[in-house]
Amino acid sequence: MSGVVDVKHKIKRVDRFLKNTHLYNERVVIYKALAHPFIDSLPMLAIVVDWSGACGQDYHLLRASLLVDVRSIVIYNMIVEQKDFDSPATNSLFLDELYEVLR
C-alpha cells in the first residue's frame, strides 16, 4: 500500500481486509480465478500438497502447489488450527475445496 497515510492507518486497512467475511467466503472462487491461467496452459498437471507450520505452533498451513518447470506455483492454501491438524475432516475439506479450484 503506497501513499502518505500513517502506518497505523495502513495496518487498520489490512486488518479490515483480512476480517472481510464476504471475501473469505469467496476465497475458493478467487483461488480458481488466479490459478486457471496456469492450469489452462499446461498439457498435464503435477500438484504437490504439503503441510507446514504457520504462525507458531498453534496453526498449520496446508498448501497445494502446481509444479511448473523448475518452480512451484501455489494454487490453494488453508490455515488449520493445531487441534485439526491432519484430521480426516480437514483433509477431506481441503481436497473438496481444491477440487473446486481445479474444476
Describe the overall structure.
With 103 residues, the protein is an alpha+beta fold. It has one domain. Helix content is 46%, strand content 28%. The protein has helices at residues 7-18, 21-25, 27-41, 88-102, and strands at 47-54, 59-68, 71-81. A hairpin with a 4-residue loop joins strand 1 (47-54) and strand 2. The longest helix has 15 residues, at 27-41. The termini are far apart.
Write the layout of secondary structure elements.
Blueprint: H1 7-18, H2 21-25, H3 27-41, E1 47-54, E2 59-68, E3 71-81, H4 88-102
Antiparallel strand pairs: 1-2, 2-3
Helix pairs in contact: 3-4
Give structural attributes.
28% strand, alpha+beta, 46% helix
Could you tell me the radius of gyration in angstroms?
A: 16 Å
Number of helices, counting only DSSP H or I runs of 4 residues or more: 4
Shape: globular
The arrangement of helices and strands along the chain is HHHEEEH
Instruction: Give the overall pLDDT as a whole number.
Output: 88
